[in-house]
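Thread: sanity check for a docking pose with flavin-adenine dinucleotide

Original post by kr_44:
Hi all, I'm comparing my docking run against an independent structure prediction. Below are the sequence and the ligand SMILES. Could someone generate the full complex and paste the structure tokens? I mainly care about where the ligand ends up relative to the chain.
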Amino acid sequence: MAQQGGAVFEGALTDEERLVRDTVRDFAEREIAPGAAERDETEHYERRLFDGLAGLGLTGAPFPESIGGGGLPYRTWALVMEELGAVDMAMAVSLSVHVLSQSPVARWGTPDQHERWLAPMVRGVRMGAFALTEPGAGSDAAGIRLRATRVGPADAPTAYRLDGTKIWISNAPEADNYLVFATLDPEAGPSAITAFLVEKGTPGFEFGRKERKLGIRANPASELVFHGAEVPAANRLGGEGDGYRIALSSLGEGRISIAAACTGIARAALEAAARYVSDRRAFGGPLTNQQGVRFMLAEMAQRVAIARAMTRAAAGAKDRGEPIAEASSLAKWTASDAAMSVASDAVQLFGAAGYSRENPVERYLRDAKGAQIYEGTNQIHRLIVAEQLLRGLDLG
Ligand SMILES: Cc1cc2nc3c(=O)[nH]c(=O)nc-3n(C[C@H](O)[C@H](O)[C@H](O)COP(=O)(O)OP(=O)(O)OC[C@H]3O[C@@H](n4cnc5c(N)ncnc54)[C@H](O)[C@@H]3O)c2cc1C
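Reply from moderator J.T.:
Ran it for you. Here is the predicted complex with flavin-adenine dinucleotide included:
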């Protein structure tokens, strides 16, 4: 079914933005949309689709050309993510996490790490995952306990041994390259957190329980289990103790991606609902004759437009090199709430048909819920926005 992104106010796009959006929309509708419901039902991830995104140059699109990326501005990247979110949030999250796992390497990596680790990820030959969350540390990420122990001299270790568990790691076990955050001292807080590049197949690194999810069921997520997995010192990203800053430094960008994908969910839910109530007849005519139904559609359109505007504002700030902590939190929180409420209204407007797995709107609802939780829960985004607000006040 054709997605009409222009159905809701979209603002002006440049020729390049339009070209990228239309190219991605074409691929998304032709290749990704047709099997989305079945992949959700069977919890099946199709690597072929990731390879297709790589073929379009999307697996490294927002990174500078100097390190092999596509040099795509974030405003354009947001259009890419909206198109993917509109057809299959599971695939949108897969690409978003892949990019999120590369950003810190692009920023903090050595030339050797860029060549060895990043280059094949940018090309989409290897897929990435970002591993921060643990059974005892989610929102409170500084509380991670996955232990890194130095191997060799304390002042010049040759390697680090990892022990512990990560949970809810999207793209695992499909991914090849894992950005893993560990601590040299679980009692020391953020100052001991250190980032490591860990390859699938490293002895002592295994996959545990697969998460059984409400939504984005076609995107795998699983536990990572480390039993003395030895990682060469050349795979430490940044210095010892830089890990917390490294983790936080890329989350803003990831939040813009998720906000854009959520705008896509909201848009798809609105369009599906608008079509349904135009066709559905009751009380002597189409449901669109009912003003109450029209009001619902208008309010849904309003939420899509707000989500898109805030996402584009955050992406624009990123492109201009401005701080994005507040803008990206506002965008992610607003857009994921919009996706959730528009999808819920779409289910309502479909009536019983909306509650059926035969129609896509129940999937939009399930997929939207997760986005209020991952990439920082929406409560944490309120804290970030309040912090930024108070910091900006001149309290004399
Ligand atoms: C689908 C999915 C995919 C994910 N993918 C990844 C991934 O790829 N990599 C990764 O590392 N993690 C991933 N996660 C984990 C995700 O980042 C965490 O679930 C999230 O950070 C919240 O942590 P938690 O689940 O431990 O909840 P908790 O931190 O235990 O929070 C529980 C509740 O308390 C609220 N709360 C917590 N602290 C506060 C506070 N200070 N003030 C007010 N309210 C608060 C939270 O908002 C939440 O409602 C994923 C999660 C999901 C659902």
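The first strand starts at residue 128 and ends at 131. Hope that helps with the comparison, let us know if your pose agrees.
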